[in-house]
Write a structure and sequence with these properties.
Blueprint lengths: L1 H12 L4 E2 L9 H6 L4 H15 L8 H14 L5 H12 L4 H15 L1 H14 L6 H9 L8 E2 L7 E2 L2 E7 L5 E6 L4 E2 L2 E4 L2 E2 L2 E8 L1 E5 L5 E3 L4 E4 L5 E5 L5 E7 L2 E2 L2 E4 L5 H5 L3
Helix pairs in contact: 4-5, 4-6, 5-7, 6-7
């Protein structure tokens, strides 16, 4: 019965994966609002500031650019629609509700307490729909049939962020449901084997990423199947703005082992959209 269930799950999950390409940041606010009055300013705003500076993600990721920008605006006491826009952009670029609260608290000590209060008023509106902690975990659990499981403390040293582990089966093929909080990912690693081996992932809920060394990252959605041969250096984890869970199947082989390597840097991760 268990075997038929797992085979049916794999059959339903087979689909094609999508390669996500990095695109330039696009902005039209300058031309929309000042195109007739100040066309050169509008051009510099849309084409240079956003089209060129914000798009140099090989030098500084979008998440870090958002952090620098909102820090600069709050420090100057700018709490108008421009800060609202950049707070919204920061959320899209992966800064979480918990992180923005800590960021503004930190800024408050250097830029001034009243400025922090004003920024919190806008931030609360931008992140109003987000939940944190146990509420967020419980909400994500309702999206899938497999349990979130317990904190993945045994492997925490190999993850950036918090993850959870729930064994699904230990008969025939070892299967676990691994859940990642937004922004969480495991280190680069390699599954070794003299024969056979490797791993297979099936997206269960949320949105995540898989990347092999030297290749573009692949988006994982519910039903996406990822086949990882032995000997391939790779990582996988959640998108910056989404919880994520996948089933992990250990492919049988001879003399199998797992080699954990360096973490995925914020710069590498920040390039993903």
């Amino acid at each position: 019965m268990k075997r038929r269930f797992m085979l049916a799950l794999v059959a339903l999950a087979l689909n094609t994966t999508t390669i996500m390409a990095q695109e330039k940041t696009k902005q039209t606010a300058g031309r929309d609002q000042l195109g007739d009055f100040a066309p050169k300013f509008a051009e510099l705003n849309d084409d240079v500031l956003f089209g060129e500076v914000w798009s140099r993600t090989d030098l500084l990721g979008l998440r870090d650019r958002s952090l620098v920008t909102i820090t600069s605006l709050i420090s100057q006491g700018i709490t108008d629609s421009s800060l609202t826009y950049h707070l919204q952009t920061a959320r899209q670029n992966g800064i979480t509700r918990t992180e923005i609260a800590e960021i503004i608290t930190h800024i408050g000590f250097y830029a001034g307490w009243p400025k922090a209060w004003a920024a919190f008023r806008l931030a609360k509106e931008v992140w109003a729909g987000d939940t944190t902690g146990e509420d967020a975990r419980a909400a994500f659990q309702r999206q899938m049939i497999f349990p979130v499981g317990e904190p993945n403390t045994a492997y925490a040293q190999y993850f950036t962020g918090n993850s959870y582990l729930a064994p699904v089966s230990r008969e025939q093929v070892a299967v676990s449901n691994v859940t990642f909080e937004p922004g969480c990912r495991n280190n680069w690693h390699i599954h070794h084997a003299e024969k056979g081996g490797g791993q297979m992932l099936i997206g269960v809920a949320g949105r995540g990423w898989y990347q092999e060394e030297g290749k573009a990252a692949v988006e994982i959605l519910p039903g996406t199947v990822i086949h990882i041969p032995a000997g391939v250096k790779h990582w996988h984890g959640a998108a910056a703005d989404s919880w994520f869970a996948h089933l992990a199947f250990e492919v049988p082989g001879d003399k199998t082992s797992n080699e954990w390597l360096e973490p995925v840097t914020d710069e590498e991760y920040g390039k993903l959209q």
